[in-house]
Amino acid sequence: MACGTALVYDEEMMSYKLLWDDPECSIEVPERLSSSYKRLQDYDLVKRCIQLPVREATDEEITLVHSHDYLQVVKSTQTMNEKELKEISQKYTAVFYHQNSFRCAKLSLGGTLQLVDAILTREVQNGMAIVRPPGHHSQRNQGNGFCVFNNVAIAAEYAKKKYKLERILIVDWDVHHGQGIQYIFEEDPSVLYFSWHRYEHKTFWPYLRESDYDVIGRGKGTGFNINLPWNKVGMGNADYIAAFFHVLLPLAFEFNPELVLVSAGYDSAIGDPEGRMCATPECFSHLTNMLMNLAGGKLCAVLEGGYNLRSLAESVCMTVRTLLGDPLPRLTGEMTPCHSALESIQNVRAAHTPYWKCLLYNEIKSAHDPSSEGDSQHSSDQQQNFDTAMFDIFLDSHMKKIEFAVPPLRTCAVLPEGCCLALPDGVLVEEKTATREHIIACSSSLPNELLEKETMLATLGKMLVILNKLLEYQTMNSIVLSPDSSVCATFAIKHVLASPVKRLLCINIGDLGILHEFDNDGEYVCLNICGTYPTGMSNRQIYLKWTESPNEYSSFFYIIFCCILPLAYNYQPDFIIITTGSNRTIGDKDISLLISLLQGLANGRILTIIPETEPKLGQKLVKCLSDSPGEKHFGPHRAPSLENIQNLKEKLDIIEKEWKMLQCSAS
Ligand code: X5A
Ligand code: ZN
């Protein structure tokens, strides 16, 4: 079973630099690598990773994507003098060569391929390559935008050829359009390429018409190129997360990749002089976490851009920490995507509607005329002087506020007498129990006769111990197998609401009789997913009807991304309770996927309550909660039924006004 996170780094890739004066290229400095690595060491992340040595890529590997002529040109730079290097650099756009460029580019690519090998031979689960030169701008016949060889594109070709992969997802979260990758896979349906990029209606580098949302691939590759252009600077956490929920993730889950490659550029993070965006480092934890639920968790992140050394380093650390399975820091800031972001999201969804089943029901509303658009709520002004020092001060205080606490325990379980689940590492079966008096004192909301059953009392007693562990963050998450999950849930909700927890999110799956009568007067948000539901509904007591036919591929990912996660990210809970009852209409795998994604919220603080008659479900969920390697196989999926969509749309219309993350269009 694959486990562990690999790290590829070698300081030799710092041995080239810009030799002459060129303001456009001066930001791509060797210190980008050392400062990232140093920060990884500061956070003790290096020693938790499996170090992989770099190697030189071979000519054969380089020419998987590049022409022999271009390879010869790069080879020839090894022996050039400064004048010749400058001349050859000027033949291309925004790129510079040094005597060591060829060697470093071979190590950068070779390191990337080492990581791909380690992941696809199951030596490790995932990993990151901290390499330079970057790759995503380079093309068959030319270097471009600081890039010499296209590391990620070659990695995809390599994986296709060596491991016979048929579906690879490339996620390019660098702030620039990886046009090099787009050109290489334009006609290739086996590689789904997603890139968001600063575009500003074609006034930002590389100023290409083909970076716009309506360029979607050609021939057999039509629909497999996804461009999300940002037409304003200042895009932040809410915009990035919304782009994932409403564009990338539904398509990626439908695509069902066997490997995820990330063109991990951090010039899309706050403080970057190129990107001028506002996403904070934690945002990359969340992006990473969501992608880890694809391809059985086989994720390979490869450094591209990132020019604010501080922001770059913190964001790299967030990515690696998440790959290692640590709880995610909470996202800060208003969770409202801006108008311009919603316009872009709407446009790219409309452009892809004919090619993706999950967009089939996308009601295409006419895009706003960009010239008539109102003021963006983002205040960043690109004309102003860009003061990197100011962002250093921001990041200093921002990073201090982030809690990196890892609880001593990952998962606590309450199991019925004689129940034997195969428990993965990191799971503790709770044996302690609260006193009868204590339980009764905490259960004023429950009818007395419920407490008369000895097994119920035993379960509540242990659950009370676990609840307190969760509240004190002694354990990250927990699972309770209960004789009556609705009684347990009611008890738990009361207990959590009496604690300092401010925002509780409850998700109920199936019928939970007593809970429906338990009135929620807006103290918490409660989402019910069932086959039938009562008529009353508010912004905080939400009923969604969703049914899956058993023994078939599921379409539950659809409602997860268009509704459940946007709502949950909008709310930013600090505690989550998930309860399953009888007559549930969604399967074990779907609940696993949901729990897996929700672990990105509330610092992973989740209490799961299921009926004790479902040990098989318990087995699956306990693995998922304890982050057992190799548990994240959720595909393939299928298109949602018209009936499900219609039911959902009706509900979404009601709550969209309150929950802004649900929006996927600007109208
Ligand atoms: C890898 C990367 C950016 C080139 C910008 C040129 N390249 N203006 O971020
Ligand atoms: Zn970039």
UniProtKB/TrEMBL annotation:
Pfam families, alphabetically? Answer: Hist_deacetyl
Q: In terms of domain of life, where is this protein from? A: Eukaryota
> Source organism lineage?
Eukaryota, Metazoa, Chordata, Craniata, Vertebrata
Query: Would you tell me the protein name for this molecule?
Result: Histone deacetylase 10 L homeolog isoform X3
Species name for this entry?
Xenopus laevis (African clawed frog)
In the UniProt record, does the keyword Glycoprotein occur? no
Q: Which family does it belong to?
A: Belongs to the histone deacetylase family. HD type 2 subfamily.
Secretion signal: which residues?
none
Q: Which residues form the Histone deacetylase domain?
A: 28-323
Q: For this protein, what reaction is catalysed?
A: N(6)-acetyl-L-lysyl-[protein] + H2O = L-lysyl-[protein] + acetate; N(6)-(2E)-butenoyl-L-lysyl-[protein] + H2O = (2E)-2-butenoate + L-lysyl-[protein]; N(6)-acetyl-L-lysyl-[histone] + H2O = L-lysyl-[histone] + acetate
What SUPFAM superfamilies does the record tag this protein with?
Answer: Arginase/deacetylase
Cellular component GO terms, alphabetical: cytoplasm; nucleus
Give the GO molecular function terms. Answer: histone deacetylase activity, hydrolytic mechanism
Any one GO biological process? epigenetic regulation of gene expression
Keywords from the UniProt entry: Cytoplasm, Hydrolase, Nucleus
Where found in the cell? Cytoplasm; Nucleus
